[in-house]
Amino acid sequence: MSVEHEFPKDFWWGAATSGPQSEGRFHKAHRSVFDYWFDTEPQAFFDGVGPNVASNFYNDYRHDIALMKKVGLNSVRTSIQWTRLIKDFETGETDPDGVRFYNDVIDEFLQQGIRPILNLHHFDLPIELYERYGGWTSKHVVDLFALFAKRCFELFGDRVKDWVTFNEPMVVVEGEYLYEFHYPKLVDGKKACQVLYNLNLASAKAIQAFRETDCPKLGGRIGIVLNLTPAYPRSDSPEDIAAAKFAEDYKNNSFLDPAVHGTFTKSLVDQLEKDGVLWTSTPEELKIIKNNTVDFLGINYYQPFRAKKRETPFDESRGWLPEKHFENYEMPGRRMNPYRGWEIYPKAIYDIAINVRDKLGNIPWYISENGMGVEGEEKYRNKDGFIEDDYRIDFIKEHLGWLHKAMQEGSNCFGYHLWTPIDCWSWSNAYKNRYGLIALDLVTQQKTIKKSGYWMHDVIANHGF
Ligand code: BG6
Q1: Which domains does the chain have, with CATH numbers?
Q2: 228 C-alpha to center of ligand 1: Å?
Q3: From 206's CA, which of 25, 375, 395, 450 has a CA 20 to 30 Å away?
Q4: Ligand 1 binding pocket, CB closer than 6 Å
Q5: DSSP string for 387-427
Q6: Are strands 305-308 and 327-328 parallel, antiparallel or unpaired?
Q7: Taking the complete model, does pTM exceed 0.90, yes or no?
């Protein structure tokens, strides 16, 4: 069948999830910061639902992977939970049930002809490492992460070819140290900057460990998944443009530049130094970052960021914050996803793709997450028993349209993954908003393909739409 938007035959069509959001806590020896937060403050989670069961992937993975296969996905990303795989964080001794579980999952994906992409950190720092060392503020934790990563490469690198060091490290910085949406919910701009640096260092050290194993010889590649929120200025005024430039440097380039070029953005470093919040680093660490850049990029795109110059004086009472240099601009008439409160702006995916082409050496990259969380989807279930989520199909079409255009213009994109294959647990929003191609009934744990899943099946079969 001929299609208007044709994608390459070897394009990755898939979806992404994560260990903590899908597996459930069954048989886990340790608790992540989210497990701990839920145990101590369950009321902070939508409807009091925590990560205990999630979508039960730990028990149901064979059935779940069969459903993903039925949708036609050729690649799926999930993550290995540090708190499940490792028994002793200091020595890297592994937990036998954790090893068995991830071996089984990988083998099942491969048996079904689905390429597994394995990520090593999805906001799930072990709480013990926060309590003992201060979490990501500690360079010892950076080394423990590299040790965990090494174990993963040794155990699974014979079969897994595509690895990711971190998912959305900026969300750790923002959630834990700036805007109070991840435990420990601190507001501490100086620590945030150190964590930003340490996460870049941890990614580089994991990449270094990867290159010391046989993985590259076996055809393995390693990358990072970054959430990009392109910063658009409110107007052409030099002040608005400067505000957007700082937001772009802080939110996006702070991970993009070290990951791809091995160096930090000079304008960002200069500004943070001037503000007295620059991280501490050593020449040896900077060399590790320089020498261990990524093979590919995963880009999560949900929403743009709109900036304007500061119009009110910056409130110094909470110390330094990135907002010292910009204000959030709520553009009149913007299109919103009201359930998540995120602007819908598909063209940004084109802008991101062209930026990769022109500013990031056209490194191989893929959309590792994109998607639309909707509340109350059960009301769209039809008499045949499946959810008619036409809004999701339209959302995907619009984004794929812009991505297609950028690829026609030479951007080196090799795939598109939706968030998420099966409705999964969404941090403090729990099961409020659903994102999946496959619906989850929380009570019965029954899983049914949505209309978008059937539509995606045809897109994949036709290499486009
Ligand atoms: C991304 C994350 O930020 O967006 C996922 O990688 C997350 O973990 C997804 O679930 C959707 O966001 P949310 O907050 O609605 O779950």
Answers
A1: 12-461 (3.20.20.80)
A2: 13
A3: 25
A4: 18, 21, 167-168, 171, 227, 300, 340, 369, 373, 419, 426-427, 429, 433
A5: B--HHHHHHHHHHHHHHHHHHHTT--EEEEEEE-SB----G
A6: antiparallel
A7: yes
